[in-house]
Amino acid sequence: MNITPVEISSAQIAETIKLLRYAGRQECILLWLGRREQGLQRIIDVYKPLQEADRDYFEIPRQGMAVLMERLRTKGLYVVSQVHTHPGLAFHSRADDKWAIVRHIGALSIVLPFFAESSTIENFLQEAAVFQLDSSNRWNEVASEHVRDQLRITP
Q: Domain coordinates of the chain in residue numbers?
């Protein structure tokens, strides 16, 4: 399976971490919106959709999905990847598998542990558990030695 890598700037990683931490001690989901450019899925927008959340739960309600769809349409973007936090270790739960927003083959779902409390630009790729959707609609963890092939952070 030939997967198009995701490219995101370190400033966008910093914004991602800031937004996730701002949510406090509850789960939070962000969507990385972008477009395909020069053989990459380039992130253009770090977007926090309207959501309902608790310590171990999040949901984007119908109104949040409607606003997201309008944003995608007017800006000519698509949801490249999703990023969310867990209260403990980073893994992809059954709920994460079932309710993932991104559903295209090769999509990334990134989970940060402990509400991203210790995440930084420098350690983002080490702390994040990165999962990729395959053609059978299964989320598979990307081995740590291959994460940089799928997710590239630029200065």
A: 6-154
User: In this model, does residue 67 exceed pLDDT 60?
Assistant: yes
Tokens of 55: 């310590």
Q: How far is CA 78 from CA 19, 72, 120, 123, 155, in A?
A: 20, 6, 26, 27, 23
125 or 3: which leads in pLDDT? 125
This prediction has a pTM of: 0.95
The tokens for 35 are 């477009």
Fold classified for 6-154? Cytidine Deaminase; domain 2 (3.40.140)
pLDDT of residue 136 exceeding 90, the answer is yes
The rounded mean pLDDT for the chain is 95
93-123 burial: b if 16+ Cβ within 10 Å, else e = eeebeeebbbeeebbbbbbbbebbeebeeee
